Structures are given as structure tokens and as C-alpha cells.
Amino acid sequence: MEYVSTRGSASALEFREVTLAGLASDGGLYVPRHWPQFTAEQIAAMAGKPYCQLAAEVMAPFVAGSLDFACLLQLCEQAYGRFAHGAVTPLRQLDAQHWLLELFHGPTLAFKDVALQLLGLLFEEFLKDGDRHLTVVGATSGDTGSAAIDALAGRPHVDVFMLHPKGRVSEVQRRQMTTVLAGNIHNIAIDGSFDDAQAMVKRMFQDRAMTDRFRISAVNSINWARLMAQVVYYFAAGVALGAPYRKIAFSVPTGNFGDVFAGYVAARMGLPVERLIVATNVNDILHRAITTADYSAQGVTPTAAPSMDIQVSSNFERLLFDLGDRDGAAMAGQMREFDQAKAMRLTPAQHQRAGALFTSARATGDEMDAAMRWAVETTGELVDPHTAIGLHAARSVALPPHVPVVTLATAHPAKFAPAVKAATGIHPPLPDRLADLLEREERFDELPGDYDTVSRYIAARAKVCADPIH
């Protein structure tokens, strides 16, 4: 399998190098040259298989040429052996039509674990021969950072520099990052928003002063391997609910568009998806893009769902590229327009094609709280604010009653205990394995939201690499 950049001018790479590179050298994001296809018979045969076996089967076409099936299966068994539930991503029924797909049974209680536990092992597998070294630079609105740090702490060939917006993540999210004291982990709290942090990370991939010295890679969902691993649980949920003989709808709380793009990939691979519902909070750039073709940033409003407080959704570029006939030059032009004006319009073709599969809904803070109360009072389920936004969207979009609607439960409610208690009156406790989190020692550095300062900080601590990517 070869991978191409959404902006058309970077060299095509195979899976191993795409995983180690993260972002393409032209600033684009890597996507497979073609989408693998499963027949209805192949999808039907997935029913009842253990999650690790299913994961290896779904991902095998994407890693062809870089990993054999036996190695991939072994990595999956190692990655998901740390999850607290044997099903890894279990389904829970709420009522006659609605279901929760619980993605928070990993070590850091968020859906990011599903991808990042595997990504950490992929890094190790691809770096084990020789003295190659990665400098992983990431930006997090909360969950990516903790999941990446857990997956990469102590790994000998990797240093991690994780940027988070100071004061804009929950205390549990922050402490899950800052209490990991491994020598290869560097937490940086910056003055600014997640979008500011993400912009710095993207800039670093194009900064020759950095890329000529360090082999820089990414753990954000700009890294294709992240999305590849997330495609699996759409198939797991789909076949459990009757695919390929029945269409399934998914409601996905999203900020950076990675999780819902994984659903799009599953649909392109043959999973019968009725609708992908893009659920946003008041930071609603994706809702506006899908409903009116207006992709314009309007400033970030901090909310009780911080992982969705985003106005620059990196993975949306992957969708627009695919919907725009994979014209890299045209995509590069659209993204230049957005970078300059922080606004652009989808082309008529992009907007029409998106509307064939996607719909969207926006939740205010009051609607988010109401969804948390509905869940606990009606179904007995306590959900976090992000999942509540997904439930609000799922229940507000009209779908045929015979179509199951699966809301992705992206985080454990204890990660956002103050917001959950404010809405429901119930304080969700942390699982036993994290019960002492609030008493653990923290370590992090505070820096201004200035690229030069951050890049100097990283350059002073990262290991110079003999074979940088760029």
C-alpha cells in the first residue's frame, strides 16, 4: 500500500515511513492511494470474532508491504491486552434505537487509547533495528496527550514533547500527562488555545532548522496510523448490529474530525453506513461547513467539553481531498486560502458529496447538560460531556426507526467529574487504577504561545538524528 499527500507534491511513501513521518513534507496529510474494499461476505464473516483478530483483518490492507499479518495480530494483542474490558470497545443499548460504543476502557480512559496503544508499538517495531530515534511533537486538547504519553513513556527510541493549552484541559486530563515522570516525556503548557498549539506542531514539520536535525513525528490524528486503528471499531459495532445486512448510523462527537473520518473510511471500505452524524459544541466550524459549506474559524469558546474546543479541524482536509477527486494542487490552494483568511468555502462538489453521507448537529452547553441528565435518568448511564454532545446529536437527527444509531462514548465520565456532577448531581469516581491520580507529583514547563520559544525548548532537549526525514 502506498500513501499520497493531500497536497500532491510530497513523495508517495509506504506505511512504515508514513507512520514515522506523521505529516507530509508539503504540509499535507497522508491517505492511502486507494481504499481497500471488503465484500459483503467478508464483512459478514467478521461477526463474532475477537477484537484483536478483527482489528488485524481490517488493518491488514493498510500495512501491506510493511508488516505481515502475524506481526500485526501480535501487536494488536499486546496493545489491547491492557484494556479493562474483554470486548475492548463494547456496545451498550440505551433504548430501542440508540446504542453507546464505549471507547474508554483503555489505560487513560479515552478513545485515543484504541489508536495510541497500537501506535506506540508500531513506533517500537519500526525503530528496533539500528539507532534511529524519533522526536514526537504533539498538541492536545486533553486526551491525545495522556494517551500518547502512556503509550510512549520509557520507550528508548522516542522523546515526546506534548503541548497543551494552559488552563483549558480538565484537571484529570492534565494530571494524566504531567504525573508521568519518565525521562523521555516533556509536557509543555502554552499560553493560548489548542489551535495555537496545533499550528506550532504543523509549522515544525516545515521548519528545516528542525527537520534537518531531528526525525520529527506526530501522534496527533494527522498521523495516518491513528485513523487506521480507529476504523476498526466501526466495523466491530457494525457487524454486532447486523452489518452487512443492515445499515448503521453513527453519531460522533468531534473537534479535529479524525474520529468521524475513520467512519468515512469504514464506509468507503464497504461497511453499510446510513449516516455519519458530526456532533459539535458551540465551536461549530464543522457543523457550518457541512450544513452551509462555510469553513471559517470564528474564535474558540472554552467549554466543559474541552476536547472539542477547536476551530481548525486538521482531518477535514482528508475528506475534502477525497471529495474533490483527489486533486492535490486544488487542495493545496484551498488550504492556502484558509491559512491566510481563516475562512474558505467548500466547492459545490465537495459540499454535495459530503451531504450524501454526513449530517451534523450543534449542542449548546444547556443541551449538553440536558443530554447528560437524559442518559442517567432514562437509561442509568452516566456519560461525559463529549459523549453527551454525541447523544444530543443522535437524538436530534431524524432517521428511520429500523436503523440503529451508535453514539461513540469517547471518554470516561470521571475525566470530567465537575461538569458531570454539575449536570446530574452525581460525582463519577475514577477507576481504582487511577484513584490516587490527584495526589501524584506533577512535572511540566510553562511557555508563551510563541513558536520560536517552543522550538528552542525542543531543540535543546531532543536527540539529533543521523537520518532525519526531511
From TrEMBL:
It holds the Pfam family THR4_C. The keyword DNA damage does not apply. Residues 87-329 form the Tryptophan synthase beta chain-like PALP domain. Keywords: Amino-acid biosynthesis, Lyase, Pyridoxal phosphate, Threonine biosynthesis. SUPFAM superfamilies: Tryptophan synthase beta subunit-like PLP-dependent enzymes. Its EC number is 4.2.3.1. The keyword Lyase applies. It catalyses: O-phospho-L-homoserine + H2O = L-threonine + phosphate. It comes from the Bacteria. GO terms for molecular function: threonine synthase activity. Residues 2-80 form the Threonine synthase N-terminal domain. Pathway: Amino-acid biosynthesis; L-threonine biosynthesis; L-threonine from L-aspartate: step 5/5. Its cofactor is pyridoxal 5'-phosphate. NCBIfam families: thrC. Belongs to the threonine synthase family. This is Threonine synthase. The lineage of its organism: Bacteria, Pseudomonadati, Pseudomonadota, Alphaproteobacteria, Sphingomonadales.
